[in-house]
Amino acid sequence: MAAACPLCAADGGRLVLRTPRWRLIHAEGAGFPAFYRLVWNAHVAEFSDLDRGERAELTEALALAEQLIREHLAPTKMNVASLGNMVPHLHWHLIARFEGDSHFPAPVWATAVREPDAAQLEGVRARLPALESAMRERMASAR
Known about the structure:
Elements: H1 6-9, E1 14-18, E2 22-26, E3 35-40, H2 52-73, E4 77-81, E5 91-97, H3 118-141
Antiparallel strand pairs: 1-2, 2-3, 3-5, 4-5
Helix pairs in contact: 2-3
GO molecular function, one term: catalytic activity
Protein name: HIT family protein
InterPro entries: HIT-like (IPR011146), HIT-like_sf (IPR036265), HIT_Hint (IPR026026)
């Protein structure tokens, strides 16, 4: 474990699924109920630090997580990014975006352009248990 790395010390959100190499967590941000992170368990800063097999496994997990979010929530757009500027620990953000969200079409880290659609937020939240059940079932068996 790297000293002072929050993603080494803790899951980094509500754990959805843990495998020997990676974990999927729910990291809901204010106004973004379908905000997930796929975190590589070992302390690695960059994607290119992984070997070929590890990169393939992580890429497949990322693609499957995105696919399941799209199937269950039908977002307007998916934002998928590996930023990690604040935490030197490899992780990918998966954020389902909807036209009624507070920032759309700007990034979630930009200034809000409207009040979020409360009914839309609650509708998304209501579908998360089924999404996460599918994630646990399909992602665990796809390793």
